[in-house]
Structures are given as C-alpha cells and as structure tokens.
Amino acid sequence: MSQLETEVLGALRVALSDIIAKSVYQLGLSWSKVDTHRMGPGDGSRLLAELEKGIRIYARDPAKRDACVRRLTELLKDGAAPRAEPDRRLVVSVDEESDIVTARGMGRDLCRELGFSMSVQVKVATAISELARNIVQYAGRGRITITALLNGRRGIEITAYDEGPGIPNMDEILNRKYRSTRGMGMGLVGTRNLMDEFEVRTGPREGTVIRVRKYLS
User: Fold this and answer.
1) Residue 179: per-residue pLDDT
2) Is 0.85 topped by the overall pTM?
3) Which CATH number characterizes residue 207's domain?
4) Concatenated DSSP letters for 27-77?
5) In this predicted structure, what is the pLDDT of residue 82?
6) Distance CA 214, CA 1 (A)
7) What is the pLDDT of residues 24-52, one digit of tens each?
8) How many domains does the chain have?
9) Is the domain of 63 the same as that of 95?
10) Taking a C-beta distance cutoff of 8 angstroms, is the pair 118, 176 a contact?
11) What SS3 class is residue 156?
C-alpha cells in the first residue's frame, strides 16, 4: 500500500469505521477510475468527489465528517478546487414500503429536470424501485442516494446502501444461475439491464452498496 493510500484511509477512519472506510475507498477508486500510484492532473479532484459521497452517507458525527473531508482535501490537493456546477444529491431513508414510492418519485422528478425522455424516466424509476425494494425485503433498512451528474458526462446516479447480511451468491444472481422465491435475482439483473453502468460491493460484515448510472444520450 502506498503512502497516499495509507493516509487517505487514515483520513476516512476519522469519521468511519475501518470496514466502512475501506469499502468507501475501494468504491471511490473504482468509480473515479484513479490509480493512486500514477496520479495525474484532475485525479485528486475526481477521487475526492467519489469519496465524499460515501462520507456524507455513512458519517454520523458532523464534526468528524467535516474534519475527514478537510483532511482528504489536503491530501488530494487538486480536489480543493471548487466545481463550477456542483452535483445535486438527494438522500432517501428506506425503512418501509412507502419509502420505495418516495424514492421512485424523487428519481423520476430529477430525471425530468435533467431532460431525460419519458421512456428513460420510467427505466430509472423502475431501477430505483427494485433497489429500494431489495433493501426493505433483505436488509430491513438503508438509504438511496439520487445524484444529478452535472460535470463531465451528464446523467443520474443511484446508489443503494444497507448494512444487512450481504449477498453471498451475487455472481450466480448476475449470471442468471440463481432464482430467489422472493425475486431478488430478477430484480438485480433487470436493474443492470436498465442502466448504463452497474456496480455492486457486498460482504457479510459490510452490507451491500449498489451503484448504477444512466447518462443523457
């Protein structure tokens, strides 16, 4: 592990548990497509933006959260530059069936504001419903974040977070070799097919994080 990686994880642990810090870091690397061993112009900014998403969701203490972000900004340097048009992010707590409807409606409204066609609005709303329903059925509670991507390639990002038992047979589900009597297999595969990007991270002690994106054509 490089010195930068060690320091970034240390900064994340200011506000997050060790397991969550590692998960947020790995997702940040994956979605920013940054190689910390070969940092180039703009890499720090992209990585910081992805890390902040996880911090805002999981950090419970506002003071620790802010201290964490300040330290990461110092470490990643070019991430300190303000963005001309900040991404717009909505967060919905998902604890019961009614929250599924709320998340679906908020996602569809944001799609409409961004200029997505009616058919794509339906696809995004359906994906949100599937992700939120999985949280209620399998984890009991969690969160959905809905983000308008306004810098670079425009679109919408949906991330489902829960701290449930994890999904042990994810590969089988995504390869259509598993069918749940409660419908999880079809829900996740269907969500992947509806969206342009799909990524999942799950484990028995870290819950599940599923992130999907749809872009304006």
Assistant:
1) 58
2) no
3) 3.30.565.10
4) HHHHHHT--TTS--TTHHHHHHHHHHHHHHHH---HHHHHHHHHHHHHHHG
5) 42
6) 33
7) 999 999 999 988 877 778 888 889 999 99
8) 2
9) no
10) no
11) strand
Same structural domain, 119 and 25: no
Residues 182 and 100 in one domain: yes
Between helix 118-134 and helix 97-114 the angle, nearest 10°, is 150
Q: Which of 57, 80, 103 finishes a domain?
A: 80
Residue that finishes a domain, picked among 22, 46, 80: 80
What is the chain's mean pLDDT, rounded?
86
Query: Could you tell me which residue, 168 or 146, shows the higher pLDDT?
Result: 146
**CB of 191 closer than 8 Å to CB of 208:** no
| CA R_g for the chain | 17
**Tokens linked to 165:** 């038992």
From CA 164, how far away is CA 207, in angstroms rounded? 5
% the chain with pLDDT above 70 = 88
Tokens of 166: 């994890």
Amino acid at the residue 28: G
Token pair recorded at residue 124: 């995004």
Averaged over 126-140, what is the pLDDT? 93
Domain interval for residue 41:
3-80
Average pLDDT for residues 130-149, to the nearest whole number? 93
Q: Given CA atoms 105, 211, 72, 205 in this order, what sign does their dihedral have?
A: positive
